[in-house]
Amino acid sequence: GIAKAGExxxxxxxxxxxxxxxxxxxxxxxxxxxxLARENPGVLMAVARGANMAIMECQHQFRNRRWNCSTKxxxxxxxxxxxxxxx
Length: 87
Hints:
Distance between the termini: 26 Å
Structural class: mainly alpha
Shape: elongated
Function: Ligand for members of the frizzled family of seven transmembrane receptors.
InterPro entries: Wnt
Number of helices: 3
Number of domains: 1
Helix content: 25-40%
Pfam families: wnt
Keywords: Developmental protein, Disulfide bond, Extracellular matrix, Lipoprotein, Secreted, Wnt signaling pathway
Strand order of the largest sheet: 1-2
Organism: Bracon brevicornis
C-alpha cells in the first residue's frame, strides 16, 4: 500500500548519533536539499532505506535474468544512486 505521512510506522527513531550527517553526503546536496535535511532529521535515512529496499526488491524480481537491477555505472564505477545508498 501507499505510506501515509505522519503515521507512527513511518516515523524513524532518532538518536543523537543519527543527527550528524556524513559530510561527504551533505556536501553533495544542493542548498534546498540541505535545508530539507536540517528541517526534517531522518529524511536522508528514510531515502537511503527506501532506495536500498527498492534495489533489493528489484534484484529479487530479476534474480534469474541477465540484468538484475545493477546500480553501478560501469563506465565510471559510480553507484547509480550516489553515496546515499552506500551509508
